[in-house]
Amino acid sequence: MSAFHKLIARVRTALERPVESAPPHHEAGGMAPPHAEAARRAELASAFAREFAAVRGEFLGIHAPEEIPAKVVELARSLNALAVAVGAGVTLDFEPIGRALEAARMAVVRTNAKKRDDAPPLRERIAQADLGVVEADAAIASTGTLAVVGTPASPASLTLTPPANLIIFHADRVHADLAAAIAALGPEPFVKNRVAMITGPSRTADIEKMIVLGVHGPRRLFAIAAWPR
Amino acid sequence: MSAGPSSSGFLESSRRGVADADLRRKLENATGRHLEHVAATRAEFPAFDSERDAARRIKEDAIGRLDELLVELKNKLEANGATVFVAADAGEARDYIVNVVKRAGAKQVVKGKSMTTEEIELNPALERAGVEVVETDLGEYIVQLRGERPSHIITPAIHLSKEDIGRLFADKLGIPYTAEPETLTDAARKRLREIFLSAGVGVTGVNFAIAETGTLALIENEGNGRLSSTLPDTFIAVMGIEKVIPKLSDLPHFLEILARTGTGQKLTTYVNFISGPRGRHDADGPRAMHVVILDNGRSAMLADPVLREALYCLRCGACLNVCPVYRRIGGHAYNSTYPGPIGSIVSPNLFGSAAAELPFASTLCGACRDICPVRIDIPRILLHLRWRESVAQPAIKWPKAAVKARASVVRFARMARFPRTLRLLTRLAAPVLRPFARDGYMRRMPGVAGNWTRWGRDFPALRARRKTRQKPAEHS
Amino acid sequence: MTEVRLFATCLAEEFFPSVIEAAKTVLERLKLKVRPVRASFCCAQAPFNEGLREPALDLARKFLRACEPGAPIVIPSGSCTSMVRIFYSDLLANEPKLAERAAALRPWIYEFSQFLVDVMKVKYVGARFDRTVAYHPACHLTRELRVIDQPRALLAAVEGIRVVDFRNPEECCGFGGVFSVKLPHISAAMAEDKIQRIQESGASTIVANDCGCLMQLGGALHRRGIPIETWHLAEVLAAR
Ligand code: SF4
Predict the structure, then answer these.
(1) Which of B132, B189, B205, B339 would disulfide-bridge B343, Cβ 3.0–4.6 Å?
(2) Cβ of A152 and B282 within 8 Å?
(3) A195·B273 Cβ contact <8 A
(4) Looking at ligand 1, which residue's alpha carbon is closest to its atom 8?
(5) CATH at A77
């Protein structure tokens, strides 16, 4: 976490520096200058991380896409995972993640692989996995929420049945609040697919209003922000 | 007091509630904790009130053109591949669901938390049809194991301590006794996970139904609603007609206020959106999806201009927690699926005379209206119902005390029309009664006022000057 | 000298005459001429809250005849003030003539503390009260009239007073009019819990602006022999 905050501080300071040459001209009411856009993005990602931690999510930092497979392996190892279910990316290619896990001698449940005739149905294999990995379509800064669209290549079970869940999101896709996220997603995924907005690990307060994590859904929820170099 | 039993039994059951010191302590703790969380999350969200107003306006609009929206919802859901059934009453809804379950050949049904299915008494109907029903929300599971009904619409087991639940699990699940919430939750998780993977039908309620897209939004923290609507081959959602909202973009306004008042969270862990059964290539999700849209007295509420507002209710449960009556008697005392302030409005309209006493179970203190995320004027509606009862004079068996009290108010109102006579009477009566008083208070009173003095309170003597009035200084 | 009308309210008149005297004293100290509203006895809240519209209508009619716009009408009760200011519009919905009269009267109706602070612009009224006080914010006063700061400001300005906080002060005392005898067990339980929280605060005196609350809390305290006294705000402000 603190490494992440340091990064954000660095990004901000870097962006505050005066620009040497005259900025390229832009029309009034046009797009914000690129550095302001980047600063906003960093701000949103930082707010997301704070809220995500507040709901007991575990934020694993901002990483370049090519670093992510190693991060996933590291996480899976720390969980002593034997099998990891990997969905398909939205903006990212998830294939390297699967390969890295296999290289690390873990069984990988691939959602896009052709099913062998004798294999149990995919959703049962996902339920047996120790970790599910997906990419979110959107993240929400004000609540620490991840919006995940269930598709054939990334079924809803991935974020539901394994005891731990890693959701990767692209730093470009962090929205300020619920309204902005829903507007950005548009109605289509809601009509065509199953969308889940996930805010922290599964929890209950049904016994004396005391919070217990991991009732039916995952007990641990991790997130990584992908930020292309 | 020799009050005969009433139609609803509220008098008796509320007396049991008040007498149960243990229950009152549990309620005070749990509701107190909830109110603290709510206050904290609200304080850090300055837009709370403007979101409330926005949400309220959307409800006003939606309920105002419910017909249109229900048509749109049904069309869209059907276009998405869901089967829609509109049930006029509880019986129709039950029959339909039992049929669907039978046709699916399911022996087991898993249920997400749903007050609407409690309202239609679905579980006994399914059990009569030979189907095992398993509640999967932890609180619902607990009360099901106890053979009780939920005592709160959000926290079904609010009336139980962790020790109570520990004993229950030791008894029913055969695990060693523990009062550790983690261990207890884990035991339930293991037991329920197996059932989730084998059950043929999942049933849940609905928080919002978006007409524009034909999408149901299910809001929860545990994940049981997601599991119930994802793993079984057949999924049945049951919703009241009032759950429909026009557009997807309306939803954020509700999400911003619902958890903040319901549980004191910014947002619940899961907001699940389901628009239809699984697609051809999907690996999970139900193969068949049914949406039961239930009226059961709601359209009659809609027709009453004062009552209509009650249909804006989001079932967040906050008005129960803040209600000084609920906090003293607990949910079971209401003998209804819907307890507390909103329950006192909804129940008489859904369940008729059996709940006719409930609108009177309030001091009209207004705490419910203040906490309500959509600002439902609960006291005003309660007054309206009180008036309606008095006009309609239905065949309700009121408790004797209530009848007497009511008659004495009529008598008082009649006399109060003549202030001079009334003043003369009390001036004459005061000295006669004075010898019976002690420091200006009566220990025992006749008639209706006897209900006052029988229940732990002395009654102020007529026109008495309590001696303390003359010495303001601290005795110290 | 400006004139104000003082509406005694049925509870104060019959059970707490000293409240009316105190209110009069305080108003007179502010150089106001106080004239009682004698031709009405009750604002109609008791029958109205019981759902008895016709009897309520009779009493409201009586009240509206007894008062006229032009001079402030001060009521030492948040509840009765709410009845006239707020609930009359529901009660008189089908009585256009009366409703019109009520609407004309509405701006002249004030709860006691509201009148002192908002109209007279005073906080200090020359009172002295050497006690530790818990202020009970009555429900209708707080949530119907939104009179929240005025009584506290008046109390804070009293010499010698110490006002203490207690847990969950805004929860209802359990009076609720007819509720207190129709569902007496619930009513009493509410008072019991409230008293317990006030006891924890170390207060020797409970102050409220509503005789219903005073009757409820005072009655429960007296039955238990707890030496905490109940005072109306007007009585505190009249004390020296
Ligand atoms: S009436 Fe308001 S506070 Fe009560 S449950 Fe409904 S939405 Fe929540």
Answers:
(1) B339
(2) yes
(3) yes
(4) B316
(5) 3.40.50.10420
Q: Tell me whether residue A10 is in a domain.
A: no
Q: DSSP alpha helices (H): ranges in B44-161? A: 48-64, 66-79, 90-103, 115-119, 122-128, 138-145
Report the distance separating Cα B331 and Cα B211, nearest Å: 33
Which residues of chain B are within 8 Å of residue A177 when distances are taken between CB atoms? Answer: 252, 256
Chains C and A touch (3+ CB pairs under 8 A): no
* CA pair distance B332, B346, nearest whole angstrom: 16
Distance from CA of C37 to the nearest CA of B (A): 11
Q: What is the pLDDT of residues C93-132, one digit of tens each?
A: 999 999 999 999 999 999 999 999 999 999 999 999 999 9
CA–CA gap between residue B434 and residue B446 (Å, rounded): 15
* Residue C189 pLDDT greater than 50, yes or no: yes
Return the residue whose CA atom lies nearest to atom 6 of ligand 1: B313
Chains that touch C (3 or more CB pairs under 8 A): B
Residue B402 has pLDDT above 90, yes or no: no
Q: Which residues of C touch B385 (CB under 8 A)?
A: 51
The answer as to whether A96 is a domain residue is yes
- Flag whether C15 is in a domain: yes
CB of B345 within 6 A of ligand 1: the answer is no
Q: Quick one: C201 and C102 in the same domain?
A: no
Say how many Å lie between the CA of residue B252 and the centre of ligand 1.
18
Q: Would C124 be classed as within a structural domain?
A: no
Nearest chain B residue to A121 by CA distance is: B283
Domain C-terminal end among C69, C96, C119: C119
Q: What is the CATH number of the domain that holds C213?
A: 3.40.50
Q: Is residue C30 part of a domain?
A: yes
* Residue range of the domain that includes C108: 3-119
C132: burial class by Cβ within 10 Å (0-12, 13-18, 19+)? middle
Q: State which amino acid sits at residue C52.
A: L
Q: What is the pLDDT, as a whole number, of residue C1? A: 59
Residue B337 has pLDDT above 50, yes or no: yes
Give helix B251-262 / helix B21-43 axis angle, nearest 10°. 140
Q: What is the pLDDT of residue B397?
A: 75
| Cα–Cα dist B348/B381, whole Å | 12
pTM (2 decimals)?
0.92
CB contact under 8 A, B282 and A199: no
Quote the mean pLDDT of chain B: 92
Whether residue A199 lies inside any domain: the answer is yes
What single-letter DSSP state applies at residue B311?
A: G
In a domain, C126, yes or no: no
How many angstroms separate the CA atoms of C221 and C229, rounded? 8
Share of chain C above pLDDT 90, in %: 99
A24 assigned to some structural domain:
no
Q: Looking at residue B467, what is its pLDDT? A: 52
Q: Tell me whether residues B189 and A214 touch, CB distance under 8 A.
A: yes
* B 217-236: CB under 8 A from C: none
Residues C9 and C115 in one domain: yes
Cα of B317 vs centre of ligand 1, distance in Å, is 6
Q: What is the mean pLDDT of chain C?
A: 96
| Confidence check: pLDDT of B2 > 60 | no
Q: Tell me how far the alpha carbon of residue B154 lies from the centroid of ligand 1, in angstroms.
A: 11
Ligand 1 centroid distance, CA of B55 (Å): 13
Q: Are residues C174 and C108 in the same domain?
A: no
Question: What domain count does chain A have?
Answer: 1
Across B336-362, average pLDDT: 91
> How many folded domains does chain C comprise?
2
What's the pLDDT score for residue B5?
43
Please give the domain boundaries of chain B with CATH numbers for all domains. 10-160+200-299 (3.40.50.10420), 414-460 (no CATH)
Shared domain check, C48 and C151 = no
Q: ipTM, 2 decimals?
A: 0.96
Cβ B346 under 6 angstroms from ligand 1: no
Smallest CA–CA distance, residue B339 to chain A, in Å, is 18
Residues C104, C152: one domain? no
Q: How many CB atoms lie within 10 A of CB C130?
A: 15
Q: Is the dihedral of CA C63, C66, C69, C72 positive or negative?
A: negative
